[in-house]
Amino acid sequence: MPYHEFECSQCIPERIKHAVDKTKNDLTEALPLGYLNTIPGTLSERGCAYCGAKHVIGTPMKDVIHLSHGPIGCTYDTWQTKRYISDNDNFQIKYTFASDMKEKNIVFGAEKVLKNNILEAFKAFPKIKRMTIYQTCASALIGDDIGAIANEIMEEMPDVDIFVCNSPGFAGPSQSGGHHKINLAWVNDKVGQVEPKITSDYVINYVGEYNIQGDQQVMQDYFKRMGIQILSTFTGNGSYDDLRAMHRAHLNVLECARSAEYICDELRKRYGIPRMDIDGFGFKPLSSSLRKIGLFFGIEDRANAIIEEETKRWKPELDWYAARLKGKKICLWPGGSKLWHWAHVIHEEMGLEVVSVYTKFGHQGDMEKGISRCEAGALAIDDPNELESLEAMYKLKPDLIVTGKRPGEVAKKIRVPYINAHAYHNGPYKGFEGWVRFARDIYNAVYSPIHKLSLVDISKDKIVTDKSFVTRQMLSDSQLDESILNSKELHEYTGEFDSLKRLRGRKYPQYPMKGKLAAI
């Protein structure tokens, strides 16, 4: 096995099995370990199971009060970091709710606090009649019976409905454990409670779609043009009651298999609804997906008409970007299923060379599909930490990384541009136009003139670049030579320095200015 050993992780020998250099040989020789408990001391960037349930799956539901039963930090950490937009004025993005458990609640229990919070939330938003309550580590450890409180409220207020998701942060190795729990809880507790109005001969559930910057609405347009009714979207721009009617669909169309394959499999077992995996990214994968759906319903001609129209409109623009991106090196570090949704098509349709792939919460199957679709020589990493990411970037010297906001900001510090894989920069990225939009964002990142300025090192520049600000470089006695002290620009502003000395003397008399600066 061609394991890749990071210098920064030599003190944690177990990490060597979580990074592999892909060879041209059998894929089984390039598969790192995945979806295991994080090794203590590695400072993982993973999210917890609570985050996977609330932030990824639950929050995109648009007409719901999303309340976390736990400390305020849990709900704050999972609020507004993704652009799950909706057509009801983004209620689910504007507001977040928490029971705000304190130390005394851990000791004496917090069920009364929770009930008061539920009543207060419904009173504050009387038009919203649906709520999801998410368990956190704190409320799980003390054993609060959230389900009993929810049932009490529903008896007292018959017009409301509450869904309880018991997925504390420790419920799985990563946020993927939370995906699993909320999938099963929803199909167990809510599916089958509402009978929908069927308006088409072709009815689907659109599953594993979270409407990031409008992705769902792009795909919805294609489905409507094919005459297909979307019964529910799990869960982007999805309605709580529509999702209770998932049992009446003719087909489950699955986009993100990592987060939502569980509910599709359960719906197939319980209601006989078949599952079809599709891909909304890239011209070729999207075209194939629309044809598959069309073939299932016997309306392939409608799919072909859309493909022909959209390709004719947008392919020339994609080709323009591809010609300018060919050969540029990219690290594809999106976290989950986008690893394999993008790995091959980003190379085939944009000409980018994928030099590294990683996943923070994906399973072995995700890594296997991602590695199989990227080029030989790529570095594959499971559950990386910040130091390993930095070391990989220093070694691979990519022109761009596509990742989440936290590792993206780290990359910017070492002057590597990034595109936000989770919330997008200027999305949506799905659909034919969306894929061109993605190529445009990559092009703008790679060729940004502002980014090129960041590569200019001015740390050793002794020219006074801003006369109203004394840099740390200028304040250093070892760097402040006679040429600066005698410079015309500096002496023109001795008055400013005199004021600075007097102010500092009044505020910080214990730290008088010393050396050459004191002599100015």
Written description of the protein model:
The strands form 3 sheets. A 6-stranded mixed beta sheet has the order 1-12-11-10-13-14, sandwiched between helices. The chain has a 4-stranded parallel beta sheet with strand order 3-2-4-5, with helices on both faces. It has 520 residues and is α/β, with parallel strands linked by helices. It contains 25 helices and 14 strands. Residues 467-481 and 489-520 have low confidence and may be disordered. 44% of the residues are buried. The chain folds into 4 domains: 7-33 and 326-423, Nitrogenase molybdenum iron protein domain (Rossmann fold), CATH 3.40.50; 49-189, Rossmann fold (3-Layer(aba) Sandwich); 203-308, Rossmann fold; 472-518, no CATH class. It is globular. The chain has helices at 49-58, 72-77, 91-94, 103-108, 111-124, 137-142, 146-156, 175-189, 215-225, 240-243, 257-271, 283-297, 300-325, 338-342, 345-348, 364-373, 386-396, 405-413, 431-446, 449-454, 472-475, 482-485, 488-491, 494-507, 515-518, and strands at 19-21, 65-69, 97-98, 130-135, 161-165, 203-209, 229-235, 251-254, 275-277, 329-335, 353-359, 379-382, 400-403, 418-420. Helix 16 (364-373) links the parallel strand 11 (353-359) and strand 12.
Layout of secondary structure:
Layout: E1 19-21, H1 49-58, E2 65-69, H2 72-77, H3 91-94, E3 97-98, H4 103-108, H5 111-124, E4 130-135, H6 137-142, H7 146-156, E5 161-165, H8 175-189, E6 203-209, H9 215-225, E7 229-235, H10 240-243, E8 251-254, H11 257-271, E9 275-277, H12 283-297, H13 300-325, E10 329-335, H14 338-342, H15 345-348, E11 353-359, H16 364-373, E12 379-382, H17 386-396, E13 400-403, H18 405-413, E14 418-420, H19 431-446, H20 449-454, H21 472-475, H22 482-485, H23 488-491, H24 494-507, H25 515-518
Parallel strand pairs: 2-3, 2-4, 4-5, 6-7, 6-8, 8-9, 10-11, 10-13, 11-12, 13-14
Antiparallel strand pairs: 1-12
Helix pairs in contact: 1-8, 5-7, 8-11, 12-13, 13-19
